[in-house]
Structures are given as structure tokens and as C-alpha cells.
Please model this.
Amino acid sequence: MVSTSSVPGFDLAAVRSDFPILSREKYGKPLVYFDNAASTQKPRQVIERIKEFYSTGYANIHRGLHFLSEEATANYESARATVAAYIGASTPDEIVFTRNATESINLVAATFVPEVVPTGSSIVLTVMEHHANIVPWQIVAKKLGLRIRPVLISRNGELDRDDFSEALKGNVGMVALSHVSNSLGTINPVKELVAEAKEKGIPVLLDGAQAVPHFRVNVQELDCDFYAFSGHKLFGPTGIGVLFGKAELLEKMPPYQGGGDMIERVSFSGTTFASPPARFEAGTPHIAGAIGLAEAIRYVERVGPSGAEQHEAMLLDRASCGMKEIEGLRIIGEAEHKVAVASFVIDGVHPHDLATFLDRDGVAVRAGHHCTMPLWEHLGLSATTRASFAFYNTFEEVDVFLESLRRTVELLR
Model:
């Protein structure tokens, strides 16, 4: 399959050669992987770095005096510094390693909200949120007597700014919203939204799981209080996530879990806790995951985020234009600013059937509610098919997808 891009300086063929899984075939067809919003594939540099760590440099961290432990500790903390630099944190101490974006959000909901959000106040979300940015707030709201206030969106998938402003009136204790919608691809104007909330003294968490794989993020420029994302969507390992928190806020938050490595001193008369970020990393962490995530970040930086972003935009444009030529197909979410995600429905064709037939042509897409059930309920839908693109995808793969889509629609109708 030809692998070229018209973006100057972006070497698509070289990029594709770095991802071993892209050479796979299924049912005698080359793999076309368009499920990147769920999880991205891993370059050999990340795979080899993790293998190297387990093969030649593995030990537990922080407490050992032997050279392997000291070396592993240095690599783990270096990974923290790499993440901090990548998202513009002011210090590595503002980076907490978690299992994923979901745990990062749960950590804030469980430790920050009880300390600062008054009973009877509201937590402002949007109807486009992933379940991971809804359920944790519902749990803490039930415990503390809080209300959930969802902000509405327009039919094309853009946040209703007037409704957001209305939601901030009154007794608001917290705002939590997605930087990018995983189902619609909408890029929310988070810098302006954060500024509006901060004018009223309202703390803000941003779910960046779908943002960091597509473009550079600077948390200081955004001025958000918390920012959460997952490694597995950023071409890194599963089981590793990141919570950025402003240092002065993390310092005031109690531990999320208790155990080793998050303490200063333990006795039966009382325990004192370590300073952040160690306070929130109880037990043996995912050392290899952090090291692998740092390698993934270095890889993305070598590829060049700007060229990758331009290439993804061209993939989305090619796919969207082709999809609109199919009778009865409707793209859900056509915001002016969006990443390379296309959710769609086709009259008379169930998304699950469509995804099954596409799979037989080697095309991997996602079908269902995409963990955004309130969004589809708001839009009067139960499920969509979603094609999501990454910088290693090709125009030829888009054409394979479109041809398979046409044949499948003809067959199922």
C-alpha cells in the first residue's frame, strides 16, 4: 500500500515502518486501523524501550540502594520530567502518574472535591463528556450532596457558550470538561472556557485524553487546575496515565490511596504523608509504563506534531468528503474545529452490522455508544459507527474504507 503525504517534512513511509502491527493482514486483507480514538498502536521504539527495561534494567524504585534500583528510579523520574516538559507544567512535581485518564479524574473527584466544593453547589460538565468524566463526579456528588449541571451542545456538536455561561451562575464548585470529544472530535475552546470559570473563582479540570494524541498542549497557557490523559492513546503503553495538578492544589489534597512510597513516617500513633507527587502514587507504580510513555513522547516529538496534525486533517477531509457521497449517511459532529474523528449513522444500517462487515475487509472501526451515552441520548441516537485516524494512516487506507463502506451499504440495504 502506497504511503505518501503531501505535508512537507512529514515522512509517512518512515512513520509507518515504525509500527510493526500495520503490516498485519486479516482475512487476506491488509489491516486498516481506524480505531485510534479507542487506543493507538505502538511504535517499535516504545516496544523496544520497554523490552530493554525489563531485560537489562528492571528493579523497584525509590527505596533500593543498589545500582539497578537507582538506575530505574532515575529513568522513572526522568519520565516524569519528560511528561512535564511536553505539556508545559512548571515543575515535574505537578505530574502524578496514574493508571489512565479515568483514574486521574477519579483521584481529583475523591480528594479535591470533598476539600473545596461546598455542599449544595454544582459540578458543571457537558453532555459530550466520556463516561469517565461523568461517573466519578456523580459518585462524589451523591456522597456530598452536590448537583451535576450538564451544558448543552448545538446540532453540529459545538458547545453552547451561552448555556455554559448560564451554568456558571449561582453556586458552582467545579467545572470538568473534555478538551476534545472522543465521539464528535470537537475541539472545545477550553482556554476561553477556563478563563470564564476562573473569573468566578471556579476550579477547572480538563479531560485531555483525546487532545494530546493530536496536538501539543500547554497547561500553563490553558491555566487549568487539573489536566488528565492516558498513555495508551498517545502511542504509549496501557496502564499508565497522567494527572497534572497545580502544585499549590496538590499540596492541599489528601492521599488517594494508602501504602508504601506515599508516606514520610508510619507509626500506630499516626502517619505523615509524603509531598506530591509521591503522596498520590501508593505502592509500586507502573515503572515500565512511565518509561514507555516518555519514549512515546520523544517519538511524537521526532515525528513532528505540526506535520502529523496537518496530515490527520487531510485524512479527515478525504474521508468526510467520500462519506457524504453515500446516500443516507450522516456525519454526527461537524464542528468548525475538530480532530480526525468521524462518527456517522446510515439510514437502514445498524452500526454493529456495519462494523462487522468492514472488519471482513480488514477495516477496524468502532461501533456503539463510545462511552458517551448521554450525548447520544441528547442527539436522539443510540449508537454510531466511528472512524478515527492517526498520523500513521494513509489516503489509500481511507479509500479502502470508503469502498468497503459503499459495498457494505449496498449489501445491507
Observations:
- The chain has two domains: 12-30+304-412, 48-301.
- The chain has a mean pLDDT of 96.
